[in-house]
Specification:
Length: 221
């Protein structure tokens, strides 16, 4: 009986020591080491790939933003501010009703199938809006000009990039709204178009936040 109790005590003590050691190693030392290495080797990425403008952090290059006018009385959703390049639609986003202090972004897609009537109507409405918003007095957008990313949200709903085709589609509107030449805005898009990673991974893309910051600087000049 005494031997059994002693053996049980030794097993429990060994288990407790293992728990304490693993807690310190895996819960304290390892996270500190990884965080320290990340801060030394990749400080920008480790801190969320923040983007600054005028000395202030205005967002992350990994998370998309919307550019809309203030919500008017009677409107359910705010209208886009057409002075700025617009991102992909974010129909998949929900709203945060749990934490009223902060407006948190919830990631998610629509989870609707390709033949869902609501989704089909959203795409049709988005396409009509893109054509209307981006047509100017001397430039009419054709339905065939509208790329897929202009009318569909990404899987997360937070894609910070648009295709070069969608960026170029917005050039005439941006030039007109900001009293710039089409050539100036075209160059802006070209300068902020990133190619495929390593030349073959992914697709060419344009970061909307970085493009709009550059647009802001151009309009200042």
């Amino acid at each position: 009986m005494n031997n059994s109790a002693a053996n049980t005590g030794r097993v429990l003590w060994a288990g407790l020591r293992a728990l304490l050691v693993l807690t310190v190693v895996c819960g304290v030392l390892y996270p500190l080491a990884v965080t320290g290495i990340a801060q030394l080797a990749f400080p920008g990425k480790a801190n969320g790939s923040e983007i600054e403008s005028d000395g202030k952090v205005v967002g992350s290059e990994l998370i998309g933003q919307t550019y809309k006018l203030p919500l008017k009385e009677g409107e359910e959703t705010a209208a886009p501010d057409l002075r700025w390049f617009q991102p992909r639609p974010s129909n998949g986003l929900g709203t945060n009703t749990v934490n009223g202090q902060y407006k948190l972004i919830l990631s998610g897609a629509t989870n609707r199938s390709g033949d869902n009537e609501d989704l089909i109507q959203w795409v049709k409405d988005a396409k009509a809006a893109v054509i209307k918003d981006n047509s100017t007095a001397d430039h009419k957008v054709k339905p065939s000009d509208v790329p897929a990313d202009a009318v569909t949200s990404s899987g997360s709903g937070l894609d910070p990039h648009i295709s070069p085709q969608y960026a170029k589609l917005q050039v005439h509107r941006i030039a007109e709204k900001n009293e710039l030449t089409v050539a100036q805005v075209d160059k802006l898009v070209a300068d902020h178009t990133d190619g495929r990673i390593l030349g073959f991974i992914g697709e060419p893309r344009v970061n909307v936040l970085q493009l709009n910051i550059a647009l802001k600087e151009l309009t200042k000049g």
